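Case study B.
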Amino acid sequence: MSTLEHNNKTAPESLSFRHLLSAEDISREDLEMILDRAAQYHIDAKNGAPVGQTCAGRILATLFFEASTRTRFSFESAMLRLGGQVISLEQGLSSSVKKGESLADTGRIVSAYADLIAMRHPEAGSVAELAMNARIPVINAGDGINEHPTQALADLYTIRHDKGRLNALTVGIAGDLKYGRTVRSLVRLLSLYPDIRFVFISHPSLRMDAPPADAMITDNIADVIGDLDVLYVTRVQKERFADAAEYETVKNAFTLTPESLARTKKDMILMHPLPRVNEIDPAVDALPQARYFEQAARAVFVRMALLALMQAPAPVTD
Ligand code: NCD
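Model:
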């Protein structure tokens, strides 16, 4: 029996939210409960301990109206590892939404076929719209340029794992801060902790709309790279640009190479939600700072924790 199964018998835990639509739904207590549970799954996996069938008999519906590799697969893998099952709309437009069905109606309908929904959609606010009539918990797996709270949970897991803390950090966030939804969720979650100094690094036209008041803002990564404990790099979100020419002018703001990383603090960690395009040269992958592949791999433990903790009683159907 894993430690986790044992602990579960004595310590019932519950999250403060029903749907996870925004990082703002997550309290610090929720966050620590999720990260602690994820850490236990991670340790159990390293030790080859059995996972337990926490989600046996439960069905996760993944409704993806937008491209995904890591998010959908790690959600589905997490559910299967916990003994649950998955039904999936890989390309959401093959659903009745294409015939004009509203997201609110889709939420009501899918509630009869599954116990949890994870959804991605190109429009900001779309997941909340579906959740309005859903009778089962709904997780935002990315809604347009708005938010991607489960990516932020995975990001904080790697920061805590590798730095040993979530407070007192100088965190550089570089790339597309205007359209990047992972950035918005990450800043919200990290802001739950004291003494976080944000350094936002981007082309002037890709700055964040409402950055925290005390954040430092620059367009020159070389000026600040030596001060950072964490450098979180993002892809310029090509699909969000109305004007292709504008994307062309900002797409190659920087490419990190082993040379550009030579001046970082020795224990700085380099993260990226992936996919990367030009931001990080593959020659960087072998450096000790590079943590993005671990970050992606560990996300499955975080999503397992979330699915296990978000399980609601099975819905009753008339
Ligand atoms: C991100 C996303 O979809 O927002 N990817 C992810 O989920 N790991 C980042 C991106 O697409 O650039």
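Confidence is low (pLDDT under 50) at residues 6-11. The remaining cases will be described in the next quarterly update.
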